[in-house]
Each structure stands twice: as C-alpha cells, then as structure tokens.
Amino acid sequence: MSADSFVYRYPPLISGKFLKRYKRFFADIELDSGEIIVAHCPNTGPMTGIICEVGAPVMVSKSDNPKRKLAYTWEMVRLGDQQPTWVGVNTTLPNRVIKTMLAERLIPELAGRYDEIRSEVKYGKENKSRIDFLLSRDGQPSIYVEVKNTTWAKGSLALFPDTETTRGQKHLQELIDILPESKAVMLYFINRSDCDHFVPGDSRDKKYGDLFREAIAAGVEILPCRFKITPEGIQYLGVAPWQATEPND
What we know:
- With 249 residues, the protein is mainly beta.
- The chain has helices spanning 93-103, 166-177, 206-218, and strands spanning 8-9, 14-22, 26-31, 36-40, 57-62, 72-79, 85-88, 116-123, 129-136, 143-150, 152-154, 157-160, 183-190, 197-200, 221-229, 233-239.
C-alpha cells in the first residue's frame, strides 16, 4: 500500500467550529458560512482529551436521508497549535475500515491466516456476545478479532479505555475464555496520528488494565493500529509498539 493511499475516503466534508457538546449525542457547530447547526455526535463516551475548546476546527458530513433526525454528523476535530492533529470522532467508522482492510489483506500481522471473514458472530457464554470479526481457514484455529476505538492520548501515548468500561472488561474476559482452542486478537484503532505507542488506561479503569495483562499472559494478541485522519480520508500507519502498564505521571 503506497504512503498516499487511503483505507477510507470521506464524503465531501463541511468545515466549522466547535461550540458545545451536550446530552452525549449532540454538538452545536458553527459552519464557516456562519450557520449554526446541531450535529450528531457518534462518540457517546466521555471523549477524554478531545472535548475541545470553543472555536476548535471541526469537520462534519451531511446526509440527504430525509428520515434522519439530524442531517449532520460530527466526523473529526483538530487539536493542538504547534503540530495540529485531526482526531476521528465518528465511532461507526473503525469497524468499517477494519473490515475493508481485512478483505484487502492490509494488516500484515493477520494477512495469510484466514480465507473467510464474518462479522458480528455470536460467541461467549450462552452465545450472547458478538465478536466484531471471526476469521477462519480450513484446518486452522479460528481467529476472534475485537476492535476498540482509541482517541485518548497522553503526549505520544494512546490509551484505552478513557473511562471505566464493564463492557470492555467483558470483551477481554471472553477473548481469554476462547483460548487455547481458538486464537484471539484485541485490535485498538488509534484514531489519531500523533500517538506512536499504546498502553492500557489503568488510571481510568484498573480492572481493565489487570485483564489486559491477564489476556497477554493467556495468549491474546495485541494489535494497536495507528491511523492518520485527514478531511480527505484515513491512512494506515502500521502497528504501534505497546507496553502492558500505563507509566506513572
């Protein structure tokens, strides 16, 4: 894959300025035209480190679907003054991007290990959970791949999670439980290009950090995948080095 190629291209985006976010799902945006719109905020979490100041540059997309309550979707925000970085806000994109990359064999650590890709396959205790991707090949153990969107940063470190997540804890435990009969991969989608290392967010969820280390010991593969976000599209930067414990401040 060439350095200038995209694994995802955005539709034409509209630039504006951030005003405020509220009720998790809504963001007031002032477009460059001066119009103030309400955009859907796809990231319903705390958005630690990317809840921006009033006036921060943002990009939104607009849907022509008349059935949508909100025509606009908040896609990204630009952070920083010295070396500004676009950070992805739309949490529906990581799985779509990873599905494309799996289909096109663009993740070397996984390419060559599967012939079939299935999405949202039931698994876990009583078959009540769904794995993001199940990769399979005749005669080989299946590979269960869970994807986590990652936007929290401390300097050049990307961290997950940015808040306590019982759901995330459950996903790690379920990946541990399928071993050793199957393979398990935890893939962190680092939705910003200014991070070149990954660590678990122990300071926000110590139990998740403990399960992360237990998962490593059990044989779960860790793939922190780096991406560059631009208004034109998303580029893949490769797998970041990682360590098992968040460093002390």
